[in-house]
UniProtKB/TrEMBL annotation:
GO biological process: aerobic electron transport chain
Organism the protein comes from: Sphingomonas aurantiaca
Membrane topology annotation: Multi-pass membrane protein
Identification of the protein by name: Ubiquinol oxidase subunit I, cyanide insensitive
Cell location: Cell inner membrane; Cell membrane
GO molecular function, one term: metal ion binding
Length: 463
């Protein structure tokens, strides 16, 4: 297997995981949103929450299904394109992936049917319990996946046996709770909530621009803007903590993110923009703030920061990709913060449903969460290169012995099938979102009882 086949195998995995990642990022947040909506209906008895629950449940079902299908494809690639990695890391990675199936996937599968089809067949409290279990399942799934991936970034708690395999060295706890796991899990979960809130806010804004009196549009827009206003600054704080953790355990990645080709013994500048020049190992046309990088990363403007000149050339991550993807992620994060502040001003002025510029801004920011999570994933995974298990197993040593033509054929097939299947699914999702929440559905006469019997739930019926 030559360099061409290795490159194509990496492109194929990047392509499929990028498609897959956007669906869990949406479904994790949307499952929690559905849980909040149904809980609010049970607590208040207001039909607007029941209407919104039905509205977003259809969208969740489609997004969840596409996420499951795209995830299955990724699993096969470990055996087809990355068999050496599977052999060497399988004793650690395999059980962690199995735990995800045995806990999260079984939990989701067990209650998803009740959540989707039991809305008029079981009692309100039992149905709410099913919704909570699906939301919990999405979080548990993210926990196991992030733990597995984080171990590949900050491996610990293992030994290498005579066959060159990574095997647990006693307890599994150091493997599961590896150094980067809590930071990355927090960062990813908040990103999922932000992604969902931006989509919900964009849909609400779309319908407010057409009918600002629609109660469902008003309610979903208000809830989404609250989440953006709260989660955006929380994500900035979580990202800062994650960056400090990365500096400790993967300094080369931070050097590439910051564009620090050279070491700075007396304080490193924060490079806002520039053009990485890999050949000359410098940032051309750099716009920078002196010593600000040391202030952010070390909390001391004069603290020294090492550069990529301390890393062997064959162990450096691709600076250009990491440099720009990081800035896309941070830039969108700042835009999300701005949208949240804009919504707070409008809310304070009692103009949340009237400021059309706010609604237009929310619509523009609708896809921003998806772009940001992909940019963040690129920053994380490309910044780990040239390793699959950081510091121990090189990507060039992890591939299967395949010819470039075979990998190219499968990659082309994936591209065609994905764009047809998921393109159609995305089009259907947009069609669902384009329909306004029905304003004519009446509110229940009284707050539903918290009974658990197998009785219809009148407030959730379409009568």
């Amino acid at each position: 297997m030559g360099d061409e086949a290795l490159f194509l195998a990496r492109v194929q995995f990047a392509f499929t995981v990028s498609f897959h990642f956007i669906f869990p990022a949406f479904s994790i947040g949307l499952a929690s949103f559905l849980m909040v909506l149904e809980g609010a209906w049970l607590r208040t008895g207001r039909g607007v929450y029941a209407n919104l629950y039905r509205y977003w449940l259809k969208i969740f079902a489609v997004a969840f299904g596409m996420g499951v299908v795209s995830g299955i494809v990724m699993s096969y690639q470990f055996g087809t394109n990355w068999s050496v990695f599977s052999d060497k890391a399988g004793p650690v990675v395999g059980p962690l992936m199995a735990y995800e199936v045995l806990t999260a996937f079984f939990l989701e599968a067990g209650f998803l049917g009740v959540m989707l089809f039991g809305i008029n067949k079981v009692g309100p409290t039992l149905h709410f319990f099913a919704t909570c279990m699906v939301a919990l399942g999405t979080f548990i799934s993210a926990t196991w996946i992030i733990s597995t991936n984080s171990w590949m970034h900050t491996p610990q708690g293992f030994a290498i046996n005579g066959q060159g395999q990574f095997v647990p060295a006693g307890s599994w706890l150091p493997i599961i709770f590896n150094p980067s796991f809590p930071y990355r899990l927090t960062h990813v979960v908040i990103a999922a909530y932000l992604t969902t809130s931006l989509v919900v806010g964009a849909v609400g804004a779309w319908h407010l621009l057409r009918d600002r009196t629609n109660p469902g549009a008003r309610k979903m827009f208000s809830m989404a803007m609250w989440m953006v206003a709260i989660a955006a600054p929380a994500q900035i704080l979580a990202g800062d903590a994650h960056g400090l953790n990365t500096l400790e355990h993967q300094p080369a990645k931070v050097m590439a993110m910051e564009g620090h080709y050279d070491s700075h013994p007396n304080g490193a500048p924060l490079i806002l923009f520039g053009i990485p020049n890999a050949a000359e190992k410098r940032i051309d046309y750099a716009i920078e703030i002196p010593k600000a990088s040391s202030l952010i990363l070390k909390h001391d403007p004069n603290a020294p920061l090492a550069g990529l000149d301390t890393i062997p050339d064959d162990r450096e991550p691709p600076v250009t990709v990491v440099f720009w993807s990081f800035r896309v992620m941070v830039g969108l994060g700042m835009a999300m913060l701005g949208l949240g502040l804009f919504s707070l001003v409008a809310r304070f002025r009692r103009q949340l449903y009237d400021w059309r510029w706010l609604h237009r801004a929310a619509m523009i920011m609708g896809p921003a969460g998806f772009v940001a999570v992909i940019a963040g994933w690129i920053t994380t995974e490309v910044g780990r290169q040239p390793y699959t298990v950081y510091g121990y197993l090189l990507t060039a040593q992890s591939h299967s012995p395949l010819r470039a033509a075979a990998v190219a054929t499968s990659l082309l097939t994936f591209v065609i099938v994905y764009f047809i299947v998921f393109g159609a699914g995305t089009y259907y999702l947009l069609r669902l979102m384009a329909k306004a929440p029905a304003p004519h559905e009446s509110e229940p006469a009284s707050t539903p009882q918290r009974a658990t019997g197998f009785t219809p739930a009148p407030a959730l019926s379409k009568e």
